[in-house]
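new request in #modeling-help
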Amino acid sequence: MNYFSSQFKLGILGGGQLGKMLLNDTRKFDIHTCVLDPSNEAPCKIACNEFVQGDLMDFDTVYQFGKNVDVLTIEIENVNVNALEKLEKEGIKVYPTSKTLRTIQNKAKQKLFYVDNNLPTAPFSRFAYKDEILTAIEHQTLEFPFVWKSAQFGYDGKGVKVVKSHSDLEELPNVECITETLIPFKNELSVIVARNADGKVKIYPVVEMEFHPEANQVEYVICPARISKEVALKAELIALKASAAFKHVGLLAVEMFQTEDDDILINEVAPRPHNSGHHTIEASYTSQFEQHIRAVLNLPLGKTDSKVGGIMVNLVGAEDYTGNVVYKNIESIMAMDGVTPHIYGKKQTRPFRKMGHVTIVHENINEARRIAEEVKKKIKVISE
Amino acid sequence: MNYFSSQFKLGILGGGQLGKMLLNDTRKFDIHTCVLDPSNEAPCKIACNEFVQGDLMDFDTVYQFGKNVDVLTIEIENVNVNALEKLEKEGIKVYPTSKTLRTIQNKAKQKLFYVDNNLPTAPFSRFAYKDEILTAIEHQTLEFPFVWKSAQFGYDGKGVKVVKSHSDLEELPNVECITETLIPFKNELSVIVARNADGKVKIYPVVEMEFHPEANQVEYVICPARISKEVALKAELIALKASAAFKHVGLLAVEMFQTEDDDILINEVAPRPHNSGHHTIEASYTSQFEQHIRAVLNLPLGKTDSKVGGIMVNLVGAEDYTGNVVYKNIESIMAMDGVTPHIYGKKQTRPFRKMGHVTIVHENINEARRIAEEVKKKIKVISE
């Protein structure tokens, strides 16, 4: 198929910041794109060729949208999977597949998938309702503390809670969930694997993530991770194994824990461009967004090495501000060498909302880390 | 002024491939853009916030467009300068200024500017009509061979001719023109200077250009140029001097000849992102497009060092093909490490039409040059 002609159409489900960054690369290759998103103010509305406003969870909306394209991909997991399954049967190429998405959308299914495929992950239990957790605690088959995760629609830290006592339990919704053993870890790591339909695979260097303790959102992503070669290889191997198990096409971001004993456990995966790969725009030979397009179109994959060290800082809304967004001190961070802000274009800020990110690149990763801290101190996402 | 709000509007005159690449960076910073272009199929039509179809040489069209924005810039020099002058008087920030554009639009004025400012350039004569050239030859004040250039609207090699005999003269149009002494040179070099309204200046490393002998279009741009440190410094100094003389704001690409005696002579300048800076997207800490936006918005300028060596190969229409474009072997060049095609999105090809470019990056510039030759041999811009 000739992707570089206007006869070909690539569909993207979701029109948020990830889609916006994907569109830079479809524009670079002049690939015709159609985007479906519920918001008429979606960041993707400009820069795509065709924009459709509609509900990503509605069967008919997704099906009708998908019928109009040749290859369909996502920038968000929460889409109607039944529609994708029907589209696949009718010959539309859907990456990630409905099967992969069905597994990933439900955290209990995802955990069972790891167990079935001998992929290391923290021990867990599965519960249909909250009451079952109480029963398990009563019967001493579950002990405090543990990590509670809602099975469905967990995103960006919502739907995840460390439960230390009965009072923590009270706040939780009565939904299908899993509980995980709380395992002390040294580091959170991530590896992005790219795989095209021919089964060709490339992986990006292991990155290290630092989380904001309160918001449970990534604060710094550091590439390369400051870990031993052995630990890096172990993480890469597990990510490759996960990729092979899913037979996924596109990107698979594999988030992992490095335990105190240097074991690697899979936390969760995302079958799309990922926050832990944003630094690749400036730091890598091939950005994760270009790579995702190459993979879903079954083009040759690009080189995944880094040109320079890269750090990514999320720009999230400051705690006490809600309203029309202002990026305070953005000009002073732009005066620092190797610092690039990315503004997603959301007009309203609220506490901890993802409003953008800043990439810091430097030949020396420790120097990049120092600059990143300065960036973090200076820039504030506030309101007018 | 808060550029990062929807109250601010950046206007761009011209909606071609340079504008398209500028828009990637306005999108990255979420800066509101308005584009004016005569073609309803302009590459910029998507990705800008507001698109206006109209004649760039028409006073009213440019004036009305300019009244609607806060800062106005260009991606092509041939625009109505009188309209820009009126806009400047009414407080719109226009970069490059009408004065700079008036000087650059006319090659005779441009040459006189170099002479007035002690900037080295090849000796020349100015003629109002072709007949005056014949008279000069008769009176032996002009000798074959010489370079003929039309004073107005020269672009991409059109309007430039080496004249060796009376028969070469016959083909030339009867327009205002200059003739230049034909000076044997070793290299064509280019330096891009960025200057913001505060007068802060940064320069990119000197690049070396190889031209296609027939089409008189750049075939390879090589960064860094493979020249001695002394020659590089001389070229950088002259570029800085030119930038200061114009007091320009934005980018100024200064094209120069390195003579056989290692003298540097200015060939011509372009007050905008330039073909000799396309490799900066992949090779530099700050792309020329981001830098142009930083400069015209009077933001701090970004670091101009290279992360890796970069080569740019123009993708021009093959000689014998006209019609719906096909990029033959694009997939095989994408399989090479560090190779990125940029497709401008023009649907029709014709001989020597600029259809895109390919960037090749590598830590070792000689290795990049080797890969660039392979790319050049493989990819062909043909028609269906």
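bot summary: DSSP finds twelve helices and 21 strands in chain B.
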